């Protein structure tokens, strides 16, 4: 059985990966935890039966020890990925790392190169590669069912409520504290596109802005917090009272307060970041963005990320020389429309767990990697780094207004190093 340590007991560490160990204790067991939030640290430790001397209030204290176990799951905040990962690789840990690898492109490359030099496993949580849905889509493409792909339209439908929760009120609202929107949320999509197309991206252009979630759009009668007597709270789709003041124990309510106690939930809404008016927060990340991508084989991609959708998920249209593929993760449907007139609708098998079962599947894959060093995973740290660089280039283009050559961008990063 694999012995593991967790850095960061937030929603991803606590539930996405921690729950896998609870369901399959014969495969992996958490024996150490580092988490600055006392309530989260104690809850994770109690749930997993972690001894008191293996509970740490910060990752530095945990990594100051000799190697404590086999693997490390790094689920800290974005800007706290680089240092613990680099130190853990030196110690000899195999690592499962939450995306993004780092908000810094140079650090991202360094981490991938370090893992290669140390001959250690560094798997980045681009979980969609492991989902049954996208695995099915990849098989359809590789089987040449629609011929050669010519162009792709790809939408990341963030969902109005997810934008408000994570990117207006939540941990990823401000790029100076976390990452740009296209890196944090859409590095999944850049990784998917690179994987499905099977070639490297050569050019990127991008446009987008924060247009709606700002004080200019605050309704008359609104207040700093939803609990401050806001005149429009009852009608507001983003009301913190509607979203969080209930006894649910699932996302996103459990992010605001772990326990389903209404008094504690109300206290968190009144005092914490999730009770702020969505028009009066300190958010700065975009609420909509487009990116145009050109790949080595001539495939063009029109990518759109938008907060302004009812449903959360991805929709796409892949256009090939023999047909097209239309898909929706929300509907769990992939439709192949052949130019011959035939039409095929596929509903991929579903697996328990977040991201359409992908959280479960990446843990299963990680366990396989640790137990069998000859096992070939679906990705590598360097592949993940390259897809990150597409997102970095897109943000560079958005800010500069220039089309970014990926070769030139890479050369500039190497010169900086």
TrEMBL record:
Q: Name one Pfam family in it.
A: GFO_IDH_MocA
| InterPro entries associated with the record | Gfo/Idh/MocA-like_OxRdtase_C (IPR004104), Gfo/Idh/MocA-like_OxRdtase_N (IPR000683), Gfo/Idh/MocA_Oxidoreductases (IPR051450), NAD(P)-bd_dom_sf (IPR036291)
Q: Which Gene3D superfamilies does the entry link to?
A: Dihydrodipicolinate Reductase, domain 2, NAD(P)-binding Rossmann-like Domain
The record places domain Gfo/Idh/MocA-like oxidoreductase C-terminal at 138-401
Q: Which residues form the Gfo/Idh/MocA-like oxidoreductase N-terminal domain?
A: 2-125
**Family statement:** Belongs to the Gfo/Idh/MocA family.
The protein's name: Gfo/Idh/MocA family protein
Q: Which organism is it from?
A: Virgibacillus byunsanensis
